[in-house]
Amino acid sequence: MSSNKKYWKSVEELDENSSIVEALRNNEFVEEIPTDEFLGNEALASSSTSRRDFLKYVGFSTAAVTLAACEGPVNKSIPYVLQPEQIIPGVADYYATTVFDGFDFANILVKTREGRPIKIENNTIEGARFSANARVHASVLSLYDSLRLKEPKISGKDASWSEVDAKIKASLADAKTKNGQVVLLTSTIASPSTAKLIADFASKNPNFKHVTYDAVSSSEALDAFESVYGERALVDYDFSKSSLIVSVGADFLGDWQGGGYDAGYAQGRIPRNGKMSRHFQFESNMTLSGAAADKRISLTTFAQKQALVQIYNIVVGASVDVKLDAAVKSEVVKAAQQLKAAGSKGVLVSGLDDKNAQLLVLAINNALSSEAFSTAGTRQIRKGSNAVVAQLLADMKAGGVHTLLMNGVNPVYTLADSEAFVSGLKKVTTSVSFAIREDETASLSTIAAPVPHYLEAWGDVEITKGTYSLMQPTIRPIFNTKQFEEVLMSLNGTAGSYYDYVKSNAASVIGLASWNKVLHDGLFVAGSTALSAGAVDYTAAANAVAASKPVSGMELVLYTKTGMGDGQQANNPWLQEFPDPLTRVSWDNYVTVSNADAKKIGLTNEIVANGGLNGSYATVTVNGIKLENVPVIVQPGQAVGTVGMAVGYGRKAALKEEMAVGVNAYALYKNFNNVQSVVVEAAGGEHEFACVQGQKTLMGRGDIIKETTLEVFNTKDAEHWNEQPMVSLDHKEVEATSVDLWDSFDRSTGHHFNLSIDLNACTGCGACVIACHAENNVPVVGKSEVRRSRDMHWLRIDRYYSADATFAEDVERKENIAGLSSSLSTFNEMENAADNPQVAFQPVMCQHCNHAPCETVCPVAATSHGRQGQNHMAYNRCVGTRYCANNCPYKVRRFNWFLYNKNSEFDYHMNDDLGRMVLNPDVNVRSRGVMEKCSMCIQMTQLTILTAKREGRTVKSDEFQTACSAACSSGAMVFGDVNNKESDVAQLAESERMYHLLEHVGTKPNVFYHVKVRNI
Amino acid sequence: MKKVGNHNSILRKLLFSLSLTVVFSLTSIAQEAAAPAAEEAPAAQSGGDAAKGKELFNANCAACHKLDAKSTGPALRGVIERHDAAWLYKWVHNSSELIASGDAAAVKIFEEYNKVPMTHFPQLSTGDIDNIIAYTSEPKAEPAAAPGGQVAVAGASQDSGISNTVILGALALVMVMLVVMLFLVNNVLRKVASANGIEVAAKEAKLPIWKAFVKNQFLVLVSAIFLLLASGYFVYGFLMQVGIDQNYEPIQPIHFSHRIHAGDNEINCKYCHSAARVSKNSGIPSLNVCMNCHKNISEVAETTATPEYSKAFYDEQIQKLYTAVGWDKNSQSYTGKTQPVKWVRIHNLPDFVYFNHSQHVTVAGIECQKCHGPVETFEIQKQFAPLTMGWCIDCHRKTDVKMEGNAYYEKIHAELSKKYGVEKLTAAQMGGLECGKCHY
């Protein structure tokens, strides 16, 4: 039976007379399809390529490409025509040298492969005291900066060196006839040879002035020291000799007076025989030193000055009136009394930019007869004088400067009064900028003269008095550069090369020691004697400090970031991507505001849906100078009433677009005073930060960072402060490590590598992070990728704040949670850090678990375990399922979301031929779609083993190193073979302080930590 | 499809080549017999014995002198025409004395050759010197024209007497003749039979074989499976060799013969590839290493030449080296103009593999030939091993680690041999199969 139902598609169909129905009966569409729109192109109609032809071409080319892919490429190998004796392809050479770029300094070894410097190592020879920090480690990449100045330029046009020489000589002659002033503006000169050349130059040019200018000034401390001891230098403190350290605003673990104090400080921080040093820190910004301190009191700089006077009162026995809150005062008094009690074992340092305050520091340390404070072997790395620079600016403004030679400075960028300098520069007849890049100053100078990188140059440096270090080239100059000293020699009419000059000068310093030996060692220790103090009225100084007025409104405290320093290496992608140890933000500077002030002004930080950190913008105004759209970070520990901001960002010239980040805070560095009166206002909009750590606190999980106090550590058994995790097995509580799904292998044969990390010694300096980058060809991914949590750092340094005043209170609060509702609210509260929290750093890399969760889930067995304890990763096997990363409890595996080399989307060093010269040829450059992670520097351990085999000997007890452990100057990271009972790491593994991260998971890691002990 | 008669043509070609081989083999044998006759007895000229002189020349003079070309010292052929014998005795015995005496000719030579004094040879008697003079006075031997060059190339066999090929060829010929004879006999018999009226039984018409095959479904199935498997095998084989460059033998910018260097002259591999002892790379020798020897060796000996590569060809290669390194043969000095040689790389491990030569060469003491093959016989260098992971692993499984006398291994050997209950340990037992040992 058929149905009579009428099915209809639209109402139109029901209408018998509709034209549409008729049209649809004959055509698919009611209206004519407007094919003319895309077929109407006449050119297409007459084209000889039909659609079929097109398909044929596609087919052919696909087939051709496929066929071509079956044939390997032809590789060429070009050996040396004349092979240098010391270069063997495939074997690394090391050269001892010294770096001092006006800001950073270190005694280093440079690893070169086939004539290319590829890594910076610490020079560990006796007498070499300054290890490389993160910036020095990264400086090897700055050598291969593709935006370096390649040719000399006169008025912006390429020129030859002879033209440059001629022009400078003519200008000097002109200055002589017109009696115009010749000024040499340099960063601090610590080189005896350069100083001699400058003296020679001065004698040949009658109206000559040498102005020393430090971008980040230590002038007040220098003035104070000079007025007492008659030498313009800084004290080189030895914190290893102190049991009590009081710091008033000095970030000595950061860049205070050049930094480089980690090693000595960390020595005293490791509890030995029940003793360790105690550290009080009074500061406004949260710094590395504050984070390491046992007791940190956040104060405005005004209060810090009062506190300093209070300490002076107690230690020296003076009675100057101070204006301090009672609560703060009691803390200060406590610190001061302990300092006095410590006597010669105590030391006080201060970062206050005030000559009188610096005089008090000298007075207090002298009163204590502090062992850490010695006037022998003073630091020569800061000499700049604020007054002289101000005078130069005035002279330039008046048009009194005829010829201005600049070396190692970038005043157009670093001077607060940059505009005055630029207008003054226009009045200078000839300005010459000796610069490595065509920076802000070089591009405005008459002559931009390219100088070599320190790895291409000869030189000598006296970092501390009595220690003579040499600088030697490790590669031929890459570009047409000439050392500033060579130009000076040619201007002076001195014959020979600068190398000859340094060598002949060295003879008078090194005496009978051989030049080759000193060059090999990198330094020569001559020793120096203590200085005698002149008479100074300290009481007047104390009164002056006590009488100082607070700034109106809020205080802005300028600082330098661990990654960027003074901003010289702004075009260095490693440093840009380096997360700040405290804020964990990379690719930015920002204004740090305390929580209370943030609420008052209306500034916020929040984690948004994609996991990225967003922050408000603020307008920062100092004395009429307005910085717009400065991103804000709410910083726990920031003193209320102060804000912090880092200089070194906001560069505009000679850097790639990606690196042009941040705002230039030098504009606010008025009169070289790092404290300014500031107005911070909320501005519209949100800033997207590239922050690698969203979680601020541990929320009471005391098993991640185990912490105790010295008192508990000394008096109680290990089980009280290093609790072993327990699990229930057969209804009995047993140690978690005793329960296992897997069988254990016998690991007593051969080597078994372990890495020990002492949380007491780790200052969070980040040298290891950059060293790891350099050693393992870790790619740079850029700001937006970091924001998406796609950073590639194999080694990260986690930073945790306590939610309560201390971590111990956090744990207590968590354990006292009763009931679900209470747990929700309590955990919510515990997500926020305290206003002045305790801070702990924890370097985390692949833990190389003996029972690794990643290995069992890999479907292609790309990650497997070695007998020597390392968790191997075979990149060529990896298919990128990322199961391993998901199953890793430590979150240390990194996935290559993109191809990061030879990819213009990631225009960092791996995208240009020059930048790729820094790559380590022994380590694979990973491709897209591959998982990667810390290998425990297997290329280094294997090489150590091979060297021993080749020499037919056993491996020495502490010969094994990884990039991070070798870079760690504080001794926090120790690497070695635990099967060798004589090695340090074997002893550290037996220590009672030893614990494994997330031990209850049962992964049995080969990286272990040492319980952090606080001396409170 | 021109496929008809394929078999026949193959057969014909085979026959043709066989007969060709026979003919040429015979010719080459004939040639060899004639060869000794071509050698001429050396002509003795002066009073000395040229044969003894040659020995003395090679022992004492050849380091600095050549017969026909300048080296450290002048070319010595016909030296007696330039200087009288008495002068030469003095010069050879003590050239410095002669120069000091102000002898014009002596001073001139001394000046000309960069004031390098010639070693004194007081031990050579005047007789010895006469012998050397006799040798240097021999006329320059004309390069012997390769007699019947092409024939020599084609001649496959250089063995003495009648070769196996010839015997086989003769046998084959006999066989062919036998077959032909049988065929003829058969024909004759048939003709005889038909003439005699005897009927030869006609063959039954059978089903054509292919139809029979199609009918047998089981056979079809089996052969289909067989074909599939066979083609699968070959496809797999093809795919597995993609990217494997075994026997890769590229043409190099300079024809460098390992046969001459490592074979004929027995130069140790590690003399030139010295980096192999200490480095991950074996190192292509830099040109200054070549010049250690080639400063004096500007041409190859007659005997070095092969039928394929003439002396002129080899000499040209040495000249290429001189051009590259910037060596002026005539002035015996470097010009400073260099052109680095762009060798074609033969052994290419992928970037994700770490291989260290020193581990294998110095520590394990493995002969280079184990992986690189009989290089001393290679006229043109090629990749001998497949360089696949399977090949590496195979060796690591089988090879005992050389541990004797190496203090590094003492402890681990004691522990592991106890653990595995063996005296010798393979690389695999030492952990040589772990991924991370080669991939990082």
What does this structure look like?
The complex is a heterodimer of chains A (1016) and B (440). Chain A is of the alpha/beta class. Among the domains of chain A are: 1-75, no CATH class; 237-368, Dimethylsulfoxide Reductase, domain 2 (3-Layer(aba) Sandwich); 551-691, Barwin-like endoglucanases, CATH 2.40.40.20; 707-1014, Alpha-Beta Plaits (2-Layer Sandwich). Chain A contains 34 helices and 40 strands. In chain A, a hairpin with a 4-residue loop joins strand 2 (92-100) and strand 3. Chain B has 440 residues and is mostly helical. Chain B has four domains: 6-33 and 161-196, no CATH class; 50-136, Cytochrome Bc1 Complex, Chain D, domain 2 (Orthogonal Bundle); 209-240; 258-398, no CATH class. Chain B is flat and about 115 Å long. At the A-B interface, strand 1 and helix 32 of A face helix 14, strand 3, helix 16 and helix 19 of B. Strand 1 of chain A pairs antiparallel with strand 3 of chain B, so a sheet runs across the interface.
List the defining traits of the structure above.
heterodimer; A: 1016 residues; alpha/beta; Dimethylsulfoxide Reductase, domain 2; Barwin-like endoglucanases; seven-stranded mixed β-sheet; six-stranded mixed β-barrel; globular; B: 440 residues; mainly alpha; Cytochrome Bc1 Complex, Chain D, domain 2; 4 domains; two-stranded antiparallel ribbon; 20 helices; 52% helix; membrane (chain B); transport (chain B); electron transfer activity (chain B); Multihaem_cyt_sf (chain B); Cyt_c_III_dom (chain B)
Q: Please tell me how large the radius of gyration of chain A is.
A: 32 Å
Alpha-beta classification of chain A: alpha/beta
SSE succession of chain B:
HHHHHHHHHHHHHHHEEEHHHHH
Sheet with the most strands: spatial strand order of chain A: 6-5-15-14-13-7-8
Hey, roughly how much beta strand do the residues of chain B contain? under 5%
Radius of gyration of chain B: 34 Å
* Overall mean confidence score, pLDDT of chain B: 81
DSSP helix count of chain B?
A: 20
Shape label of chain A: globular
Strands in their spatial order, largest beta sheet of chain B: 1-2
Helix content of chain B: 40-55%
Pfam family, one (chain A): Fer4_7
Protein name (chain A): TAT-variant-translocated molybdopterin oxidoreductase
Domain 4Fe-4S ferredoxin-type (chain A): 753-783, 837-868, 869-898
Domain Cytochrome c (chain B): 48-140
